[in-house]
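Section 3.1: Structural characterization of target chains.
Under the original work plan, the team committed to producing a structural model for every single-chain target entering the pipeline before any wet-lab resources were allocated. The record below documents one such target. The sequence was received from the expression subgroup and is listed exactly as submitted; it comprises 245 residues.
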Amino acid sequence: MRLILQYALSVIFIVQMYLAMAIYALYWTPIAMFRREAAFDAVHAYCRWVRASAALLVGLKSEIRGEVPTDEVLIGAKHQSFFDIILIVSVVPRPKFIMKKELLWAPIVGWYAKRLGCIPVDRGKRGQAVKQMVADVKAGTAWPGQLIIYPQGTRVAAGAKRPYKVGVGVLYSQLGQDCVPAATNVGVFWPRHGLLRKPGLAVVEFLPRIPSGLSVEEFMARIEPAVEDASDRLAAEAGFALKKG
């Protein structure tokens, strides 16, 4: 009976989350069309609403740990579900992503992504997009902010292992910026697939930054164990049984 109730509350939460997205867009979009900073105000307000409503409706509280980066850096984040995006964007001042080009056509999300300065890429042409982005940064034409990237390239379930792609190291090397690793346990409570949202404490933890200037190999050797070990620690803290071996 308790599980059925949690499923019902999860559905209510999900429905209101997308309804709230539309309401926030109706209010903020006319302002954001003329003032770009309003786009950041909109996404911050929406993400805070999702965090608050998750706590209220399904008992999923959330917490940010570590020093939130506010300068122009890379954020190399563990990605387990939509909720880790919500948590990071709720506190980072000027978030932007490298995103699939198809998302530009998504209602509301696509327009705001462009307004925030996200970088759309074609599947199979990521290298070309990275080169253009690096050129824009060096030319001073890219909008400043915190570029959030997922070293594993996709959502990965809590406790699961997936190799880190060298592209994040190449990007770090070419941009010449510090990288702030970010760990999370949100997948324990908000999985990649399915409707059930579980009660508990979801955490995103910003870890000590990796300074610019390392070789790609040195960077890769530091970011993967930092993020994976911290994410496993957070999952264990949440009561998730990690597989051994």
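The mean pLDDT is 89.
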